[in-house]
Amino acid sequence: MNTSADPKTALYRIGAVSKTTGIPVSTLRIWETRYGAFTPIKTEGKQRLFAEHDVSKALLLKQLSQNGQAISTIAHLDLEQLRRVSNLPHNAPQSLAAPSQPVSLAVVGLSMANRIESKKFATGLKQNQIKVTDVLVDLATATRAELAQQPQVLLVKVNTLQTSVHSDIQALIAKHKFVQTIVVYNFAPEAVVQAMKFSGLIVRREPISDIELAELLQSVLFVDSARAQEFGTSGAVIASRKYSDATLSRVAGISTNVLCECPRHVAELITQLASFEQYSQECLNLNAEDAHLHAYLRSISGSARSLFENALEKIAMHEGIDLREGAG
Fold first, then answer.
1. How far is CA 260 from CA 92, 194, 195, 264, 315, in A?
2. Same domain, 153 and 223
3. Which of 16, 102, 199, 214 has the most C-beta neighbours closer than 10 Å?
4. Could you check whether the bond before residue 93 is cis, i.e. omega within 30 degrees of 0?
């Protein structure tokens, strides 16, 4: 099925598509005219204008052709069909191979998905491979979608943040059990941004470069996969916060039979680590020059915080402490 441009979406000249995807203009024209891969809008001056989904399709066609697929057999496929083909095990790209399994990523927003899947973005990742398993056009589509796999990370790009957007994202997290969620936005009330941060989301305002975005993704990954396995963790992504400051404060004040006061000490450690984790995140947002350092610091503090949360659960089970939010 050929794609067709929607006048309401962003439109790009063929030169811009070539620059974004790294595909020569001549190749794009062959894919269009000979194989019917695209149906761009043509202006009165016969200028080709490609839509955002055409850029997505070009990136996927490039990836699949580099992995041995013949353009003639895949050019007619739509985006969903191409993504299913690209996610087959024998089609996994080799250029970013890493010792551990790639981190699976669901992306809301075509423009953000195109950035993530570009070669330029890939160079910003230091150690870990990112595998895009699902791409949703917008939040409305995402709320109705059944995801192909179980992605570990959710990356959302929206223009404006409102309370309703926060609610939609939280519903997505509850439905699909994402380990971490990153939200990139253009405009938002400060109260909404703070509420999203307090609920464990990583929130970042545009403009953000590809390198900064790569560092942001890097900050939610374990720095050392071998060490993560040593500690018995189940994946490469650091879990978001499980317990609020209020819950930790309540636990720290409980009198228990543990003479060394482990609940209090562990709860206080988690609070301190979570505070430093947030501090490193803020520094990552504000200081592009030191972004890699702060991504590393956030990853270290986040993984330590996650490990101590696991320890707190064991203590709570032993002592009969209720860790549920708002429990007395």
1. 51, 36, 35, 9, 12
2. yes
3. 214
4. no
